[in-house]
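WARN retry 2 of 3 for item q-0093 after timeout on previous attempt; input resubmitted unchanged.
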Amino acid sequence: MKRNFLILMITGILAAACLPSFAQAPKKIPADKQRALQWKPEKGQYYFSHSLVFDYQNKADNTSGKLKIYLDPVSGAICFRKESSFGEHGKGFDFVIAFPDGKYIFCGADDAGKKMRIVEMVKEVKPNAETKAEQQENFTTYCIPTGNKRVDFGLESLEYDLTYATSDTKDKIWLTKTPFSSYTIYGIEFVESAVSLPVSFDYLHLLTSDLLVTEINSKDLILKLTSLEKDPFLANIKGYPEVKVAD
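OK item q-0093 returned
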């Protein structure tokens, strides 16, 4: 019994040593004064005070541009807008609001031009203990720290060599700890509604919820966070009647 406990304790210590070693916990992003006036979920109104902007070059399909994701730093909710997040990758949807509990609200119009709202739950955004253990194992196996650090927009990022089980490919990836969950961003990969981003954020299997990819350089993709700043946007779902979608 004591031997098993000792093995588990040593394993935990080694795993913790391989996790990102950030100098300090991330500072909370303060919401602006308008948040108290504009954030009214009971009225279908959601206020986002900041935005994350990524520059990307998707070598696989020869596209490039900017990707903007709106953020409410208080609740951790985010918003994807058609104009700046998914464009033609989202059919008739105008915007998508995502919450840390895995709820995604899609607002747009059907083929007849009638406004509609679809609510979808993405269970992967709330991983169980087994999944969390698998994520940690994947991270310690495939993310090798290089020792390089930097600070962008007040966020400290660490560089890793990202390796793969099925190839000898090695990519460069930068990660930062955030005071909000990044799973709302990564969870868009799992939605059944027809929305996708111009780049893949398929990192739920690899990263903990407080780790955000700030840069990646791979054979198929170059991505870098270029802005995190105040950029107010008000999303109102009231004019979009909810439509139930059969399972």
